[in-house]
Design a protein that fits this description.
This protein has one domain. Helix content is 14%, strand content 41%. The protein has five helices and 13 strands. Strands 6-5-4-3-2-1-13-12-11-10-9-8-7 form a 13-stranded antiparallel beta sheet, with helices on both faces. The longest helix is centred in the first third of the chain and has 24 residues. The two termini are 21 Å apart.
């Protein structure tokens, strides 16, 4: 995968810009419109399939890997299903004393939320476990999540969340109430750049967002830094997201999301990258059983909806879960590396 996105992060300089009241009003109205679009989407129901590549940065002598990744999200009202899948290799022990062998391996895991109840299934062979949502969110939850929680609208607010397994911490409405306008300017070609901040105790997060009139004022670029904090290494925090949009059934929806961000291994700064293409189903396009909390395997109806060759391997041997049920978008296939042994 190209390091262009990281290079753009490193070249980013936070330069104050000034804007008049008209531009500030435009930014406020745009954020409100974005929130309204997301609420309509959830009210009517949507399913989103994101397929792409995730980078696993070098660490402790490991060279790092680029991993094909799939994320499915199905949401309506207070019902949400998250599905994660990735492609790697697995080592199997042969019978009769023969040497072990490796084969391509596709992992699946899912979690479903319905009001105050949660069902989790961290592996294809293990049983699903149901629990109260309050237990799931406790730190001592015995079922640590392996499922990335991809919310294709909320994640632009913090692009690195495309690679996070915890539930979204803030809604668009909550973040809107916390964002403080700093400045804005017109960039030309119908684009407006806005600088906003949030402050929690002694830490300030600065958001630099570019909105595009050509895409119904949707955000096409988000940069996040921490200009002020008493936390160690806070100045090294960098997050970048770039977005492409498409018009589908009268709605502007993300078509592609690229993101990069820093994290820390001790005092070492490491970079993560991701590049996803998104496919959508809206409203009545989604069968009712996709929203069934009691379904034994919620992946099956979503796989049918997006024409994935998925099979339920519950209770079967690990060796049987080596099928390739999905493919990368053609735009990314050239960047995928051969999977490495686990």
């Amino acid at each position: 995968m190209s390091r262009l996105l990281i290079a753009m992060i490193l070249l980013f300089v936070s330069t104050p810009v000034r804007g008049d009241g008209g531009v500030e009003a435009y930014v406020a109205e745009t954020l409100k419109k974005y929130q309204s679009a997301h609420e309509d989407l959830v009210r009517n129901g949507y399913a989103c399939m994101a397929t792409g590549l995730l980078s696993q940065p070098p660490h402790n002598g490991d060279d790092g890997r680029i991993i094909p990744s799939l994320q499915l999200t199905c949401e309506r009202a207070d019902f949400t299903t998250y599905v994660s899948s990735n492609k790697t290799t697995a080592t199997f022990q042969s019978v009769g004393g023969q040497a072990p062998f490796t084969r391509p391996h596709t992992r699946w895991a899912w979690e479903t939320f319905n009001g105050k109840r949660v069902k989790v299934k961290p592996s294809p062979q293990g049983p699903a476990t149901e629990m109260p949502r309050t237990r799931y969110t406790k730190r001592n939850n015995p079922f640590p999540s392996l499922v990335i929680k991809h919310d294709p609208f909320v994640d632009w607010l913090w692009p690195s969340a495309m690679n996070f397994t915890f539930l979204p911490r803030k809604t668009i409405s909550q973040l809107r109430s916390e964002l403080q306008f700093v400045s804005a300017r017109e960039l030309g070609s119908g684009q407006t750049e806005a600088v906003l901040r949030t402050q929690q105790k002694q830490t300030i997060h600065q958001f630099k967002i570019v909105f595009s009139k050509a895409h119904n004022d949707m955000p096409i670029d988000v940069q996040i830094t921490v200009p002020e904090s008493n936390l160690p290494l806070a100045s090294e925090i960098l997050v970048r997201g770039r977005y492409e949009w498409k018009l589908q059934k009268g709605l502007w929806l993300p078509r592609r999301i690229e993101f990069a961000y820093t994290s820390f291994a001790g005092r070492e700064v490491v970079f993560h990258e991701g590049d996803y293409y998104l496919a959508w189903k809206l409203g009545k396009e989604i069968p009712k059983h996709c929203f069934d909390f009691d379904a034994p395997d919620p992946i099956e109806p979503l796989a049918t909806l997006f024409q994935l060759n998925y099979q339920d391997y519950s209770g079967k041997r690990v060796r049987e879960t080596v099928e390739s049920e999905w493919e990368l978008p053609s735009e990314l296939q050239a960047f995928a590396e051969p999977t490495q042994q686990e």
